[in-house]
Amino acid sequence: MILVVKYGGNAMTGPPDDPVLADCAALHREGHKVALVHGGGPAIDAALAERGIVEKRVAGLRVTGRQSLGVVEAVLCASVNKALVRGLCALGVSAVGV
């Protein structure tokens, strides 16, 4: 069985003392397979603001348009995902980002 953990961007504290990553590493050491699905809202908001891109929201949810798609992808793939993988690897987990 695979345990799926959703780690919302607003909850991320980051390494080295990230309790969610520590819990995932502990589950891994206990023999569980863990899939960590992450968000990155605050990091995306900051990157869009830095570039002067105004985001659209509907009912509190971001609507990713053509102008912001590349920024969102870069933040999630090149920043957030890699940082989480590095954090898990530092805790002894053979982690990969997808």
What gap, in angstroms, lies between the N and C termini?
19 Å
Low-confidence stretches: none
Protein structure class: alpha+beta
The profile of the biggest β sheet is: 2 strands, parallel
- Helices and strands, in order, run as EHEHEEH
Question: In DSSP terms, counting alpha (H) and pi (I) runs of 4 or more, how many helices?
Answer: 3
Beta-strand content bin? 15-25%
**Shape summary:** elongated
Helix content: 40-55%
Strand order of the largest sheet: 1-2
Q: How many β strands by DSSP?
A: 4
Mean pLDDT: 92
Describe, in plain words, how this protein is organized in 3D.
Helix 2 packs across helix 3. This protein has three helices and four strands, in the order βαβαββα. The chain is 47% helix and 18% strand. A hairpin with a 2-residue loop joins strand 3 and strand 4. It is elongated, with a radius of gyration of 15 Å. The model has no long low-confidence stretch (mean pLDDT 92). It has a two-stranded parallel ribbon. Strands 3-4 form a two-stranded antiparallel sheet. It is of the alpha+beta class.
Can you tag this structure with a few keywords?
single chain, 98 residues, alpha+beta, two-stranded parallel sheet, 3 helices
